[in-house]
Write a structure and sequence with these properties.
Distance between the termini: 11 Å
CATH architecture of the largest domain: Alpha-Beta Complex
Protein name: L-threonine 3-dehydrogenase
CATH topology of the largest domain: Quinone Oxidoreductase, Chain A, domain 1
InterPro entries: ADH-like_C, ADH-like_N, ER, GroES-like_sf, NAD(P)-bd_dom_sf, Zinc-ADH_QOR/CCCR
Structural class: alpha/beta
Pfam families: ADH_N, ADH_zinc_N
Largest sheet: 7 strands, mixed
GO molecular function, one term: L-threonine 3-dehydrogenase activity
Low-confidence stretches: none
Bound molecules: NADP nicotinamide-adenine-dinucleotide phosphate
Helix content: 25-40%
EC number: 1.1.1.103
Length: about 325
């Protein structure tokens, strides 16, 4: 099979190239998927460049955690009727050497989830990391419910877009910050009721007018930059759920303390197993309900994998997808 790979050590570490590899055999409890589309996330280029969470002891990595395709073989203990199923893949390369930037990938059966009829492979290839992270940010602990107000920062981002759609699906009201009219349109299309340009408008005033008692949850992409805003808009006992870290300094907030509000950190890889299972179940239900949609897509061939990673690193607005040869 054809695959993209990089080495993890030496002078060529992180350089992507296309290679031929043996067809992976699914082990017990695994399935082999013929990948149609591989989805690229920031974590993929960060890990490749040494700033991520690649498992120790790997000489070579086939990158990319997300993807979609069709099951073509099953290992011992997996129902043979799964062969032929269209599936979306999550955390394919977590703690493993082989991700989705390959014609074929073998992975645990539960990490290949049936795609409902009507959900495209492209949509499926963009679900794993963004939708599962978004789900945890919204539903950890006592989570959000119908009628709750939620603020999602950076609403055109992959995680944020999924967060808006999942929150709306659950019956919540959503406000979102953005930095341009193009991004505002994407946030609105996802279902945000209130969209605020955080570079040119007063976010606190707008959100407080929209939700006078404050929001129950903030889904946060840049905590140090937004900490003061978050403290002013979060309601009593609310949660600021942050999924990205930055090296900027941040001061502990007295306002957060007065509100008995919490700051929670989310990492999709290490979230509790029960939370992963719940995220998969809810994302599947939301797909069936037609509640999850596709951001604008930029496509690359497998041979263009470096350009695909670069596009994500450069902040392409939408999803970057890599097509595998048929
Ligand atoms: N913890 C986890 O498990 C997890 C999971 C997925 C992703 N991540 C991390 O989360 C980050 C975003 O991932 P992604 O895939 O969603 O990326 P993305 O699609 O590039 O979206 C990031 C969005 O955040 C916006 N943004 C940046 N700074 C902002 C600020 N101060 N206020 C409001 N919006 C801001 C950006 O737009 P503007 O800059 O134009 O505002 C952009 O729309 C990456 O660092 C990624 O590595 C972590």
């Amino acid at each position: 099979m054809r695959a993209a790979r990089y080495l993890t050590g030496g002078p060529d570490a992180g350089v992507l190239e296309i290679v031929d590899r043996d067809v992976p055999e699914p082990g017990p409890g695994e399935v082999r998927v013929r990948v149609s589309v591989s989805g690229v996330n920031p974590t993929d280029w960060k890990s490749r460049k040494g700033g991520g969470l690649t498992a120790a002891g790997l000489d070579e990595v086939i990158p990319n955690q997300d993807g979609a395709g069709v099951i073509e073989a099953v290992g011992a203990g997996v129902d043979e009727r799964r062969v032929g199923e269209r599936v979306w893949l999550w955390l394919a390369q977590w703690q493993r050497a082989h991700g989705t930037a390959a014609e074929l990938v073998a992975l645990p059966s539960e990490q290949a989830v049936a795609l409902p009829d009507g959900s495209s492979l492209d949509l499926g290839a963009g679900l794993g990391i963004p939708a599962m992270t978004a789900h945890r940010c919204l539903f950890s602990g006592d989570g959000i419910g119908a009628g709750d107000a939620v603020l999602v920062h950076g609403g055109a981002g992959a995680v944020a877009h999924a967060a808006i759609e999942l929150a709306v699906w659950r019956g919540a009201r959503v406000a979102s910050t953005v930095s341009s009219p193009e991004k505002a349109q994407l946030a609105r299309a996802a279902g945000a009721e209130l969209v605020v340009d955080y570079r040119n408008e007063d976010v606190v005033a707008a959100v407080r007018e929209w939700a006078p008692d404050g929001v129950r949850r903030v889904v946060e992409v840049d905590l140090p930059a937004n900490a003061d805003v978050d403290a002013e808009v979060v309601g009593d006992h609310g949660v600021v759920s942050t999924y990205a870290v930055s090296p900027k300094p941040m001061q502990a907030s007295r306002t957060m303390m007065i509100r008995n509000a919490a700051i929670e950190f989310v990492l999709v890889y290490t979230m509790p197993e029960a939370a992963k299972r719940q995220a998969v179940a809810d994302v599947t239900e939301a797909l069936r309900d037609g509640a999850l949609t596709q951001l604008p897509v930029r496509r690359f061939a497998l041979e263009e994998i470096t350009a695909a990673h670069d596009a994500v690193e450069a902040g392409f607005v939408g999803k970057v997808l890599v097509d595998l040869p048929r």
